[in-house]
Write a structure and sequence with these properties.
This protein has 245 residues and is of the alpha/beta class. It contains six helices and nine strands.
């Protein structure tokens, strides 16, 4: 089977929603030998991808009638949620693990990976985002409950936004009204970085957007992923109705 750096589910769906999952998979492409020299135990961790996020994205896209864009390369290969000039674009050390396959990656290899994986993903992203005049971007990610040597994170879900919080504000309010959820605003990470995926495809174009971070131990199974997709969809729709035209 021919390798492709992204997958689009529901490409013909006409909803104004666009669901994206930058870190859907832990795939190391064949031209890198299918491995970065890490043990499987590391490749199954959050350092390589966002566990559970792909299933939630697919469930959310189905519930909203929206296309879903899935990255098909590990964030350790090159991170599609970083700007091209970001120093963390190609990581050599992540949460205590040295990445052997990146140890000697130089500027030439960085440029090759940009052309082979990163730029085709973002070209597809731009085309999907431009398909509707009023596209609303929902980026789905997951986070680990505890980084090595760090305190346990208390949130079930975090909503990230930058200066444009038109959609995120009512969405956060809806989540905070759920009695069983601890919700973080710009947690476990603050806002957005210049040149990241939402900045590039939403903020710079004035598109409504929000970024969802789900704790990955809550979305380990297909049933949990389906549950969260179905739970979040009506809250997003209600939040969008509250956004001024």
């Amino acid at each position: 089977m021919t390798y492709h750096p992204y997958h689009i589910e529901g490409a013909s769906r006409k909803s104004r929603w666009l669901i994206t999952c930058d870190h859907a998979r832990n795939t190391v492409p064949p031209d890198l030998g299918g491995t970065l020299g890490l043990p499987d135990s590391d490749m199954e961790r959050h350092i390589a991808f966002d566990p559970g996020a792909e299933g939630v994205s697919l469930a959310l896209g189905e519930a909203l009638g929206a296309p879903v864009l899935l990255g098909n390369f590990s964030r350790l290969v090159i991170d599609p949620n970083r700007g091209e000039d970001d120093p963390t674009l190609l990581m050599k050390l992540y949460d205590g693990s040295v990445i052997p396959g990146n140890r000697h990656a130089d500027d030439t290899e960085r440029e090759r990976r940009l052309n082979a994986y990163y730029r085709p993903y973002h070209d597809a992203y731009a085309k999907l985002a431009a398909a509707q005049e009023d596209t609303v971007i929902v980026a789905v990610h997951s986070f680990t409950r505890q980084l090595r040597g760090r305190p346990t994170r208390p949130w079930h879900v975090g909503i990230l936004h930058a200066w444009d919080s038109r959609l995120s504000d009512p969405f956060i309010a809806a989540l905070e009204a759920e009695p069983d959820l601890t919700v973080g605003r710009n947690e476990p990470y603050p806002g957005h970085l210049p040149g990241d995926a939402v900045d590039r495809h939403a903020l710079k174009h004035g598109r409504n957007n929000t970024l969802i971070e789900l704790r990955n131990d809550l979305i380990e199974t297909a049933e949990q992923q389906q549950h969260w997709g179905q739970r979040l969809a009506p809250l997003l729709e209600d939040a969008l109705r509250q956004v001024p035209e």
